[in-house]
Structures are given as structure tokens and as C-alpha cells.
Design goal:
Length: about 180
């Protein structure tokens, strides 16, 4: 999904949400069950490599996304600014239960630009595809994805897709599936 491909219906709720058994920065980090299992595998592998990840954000309902987006509009003063960093309700990958944000266990650079230079970001950029995840909003692809770079936001796509994209050097789902770019709504 992206700014041209909303959820249908807009207030869609996934059926099989559960809390993964990993360190979380919030009490509300639900993911779909198969995604939660993949997250558990990735976090354990990172820990084995000495990288302590935390789950910062998982599923967000339509109603929660309404307030999240509204707070960004208030911060920027208009929708144009908010639209570069936050999805409108019904258009957020977080509402699918397939997407999540990671952080460092020490909280460094949570959800801000400098996260990209942390061990957590470097490790996941290299290994996430092995667990079926893609970094959904890579640096320099905002004209395709519609969003500024987010080195913390991952989307579950399954290993068939994630490994094929890594092998081909494809950075966005739009390009992988031959879909139009979605810079705006
Ligand atoms: Zn996110």
C-alpha cells in the first residue's frame, strides 16, 4: 500500500494480531501472528550478534492513525508537511499489522534521522531481508514511496519477495511489483 493504494475498507482491522515476545518500547506493539514470529526470529539473531533491538511501534488502528496524523498536521501547520512523514488514516502500513518501527534498546535516535547511523539500523539494513522484511522508505526514494527516509520502518513481505528484491538490488515495493510511483495522494 501507498498514497495511491489505501486499505479497503479504510478502517480495515487485521484478524490475527498478537504481541511478539521481544523487547518493546510500548505496551501496544501488536503485529499479525506470522509477522510477530518473524520479528522474534530477527530480534534473536540481532541479539546473537550483540545488537539489542526494541520494537517501538506496530499495529495502529484507523482511529489511532487519525490522531497520529492530526498531531503531525498541527506540528507542521499544514497537511503538505505532515504528508511527507505520516500517512493519512486508511493509508498507513501500520494499520495492516504487517509493518513496525524498530529502535535501539538504549533509546538512541528513536524515530529520528540519526537512527540510520546506529548499530540497530546498520544490522537490520543488512539482515532484515533474511526474515522477510524490507526497509520500506529508503533514503532517496521519496518520489516513489511518498515518504521521507525512515531507517526504522520495516514491512513484512515474506522471504520470496524480500530475498528477490535484495538479489535484484530493488529498493521499493513499487518498483518490484511494477506499480506507479506514489509521491502524493
Ligand atoms: Zn513506521
Amino acid at each position: 500500500m501507498n498514497k495511491r493504494r489505501p486499505l479497503v475498507p479504510l478502517d480495515f482491522i487485521p484478524a490475527d494480531l498478537r504481541q511478539p515476545d521481544v523487547a518493546t518500547a510500548t505496551e501496544n506493539a501488536l503485529l499479525r501472528s506470522d509477522v510477530a514470529a518473524a520479528v522474534e526470529g530477527m530480534f534473536a539473531a540481532a541479539a546473537d550478534d550483540g545488537v539489542a533491538l526494541t520494537l517501538v511501534s506496530g499495529y495502529r488502528s484507523f482511529a489511532v492513525q487519525e490522531s497520529t496524523y492530526a498531531s503531525w498536521v498541527a506540528q507542521y501547520g499544514d497537511a503538505a508537511g505532515a504528508d511527507t512523514v505520516s500517512a493519512r488514516p486508511g493509508y498507513s502500513e501500520h494499520q495492516t499489522g504487517l509493518a513496525f518501527d524498530i529502535g535501539q534498546a538504549d533509546g538512541a535516535c528513536t524515530l529520528v534521522l540519526c537512527f540510520r547511523d546506529t548499530p540497530a539500523a546498520r544490522w537490520t539494513a543488512t539482515h532484515a531481508a533474511d526474515y522477510g522484511f524490507v526497509l520500506r522508505y529508503p533514503l532517496g526514494y521519496h518520489e516513489i514511496t511518498g515518504f521521507s527516509a525512515e531507517s526504522w520502518h520495516f514491512r513484512y513481505v515474506g522471504k520470496d519477495v524480500s530475498l528477490a528484491m535484495r538479489a535484484a538490488g530493488t529498493r521499493t515495493l513499487e518498483e518490484h511489483f511494477g506499480l506507479p510511483a506514489a509521491p502524493s495522494y
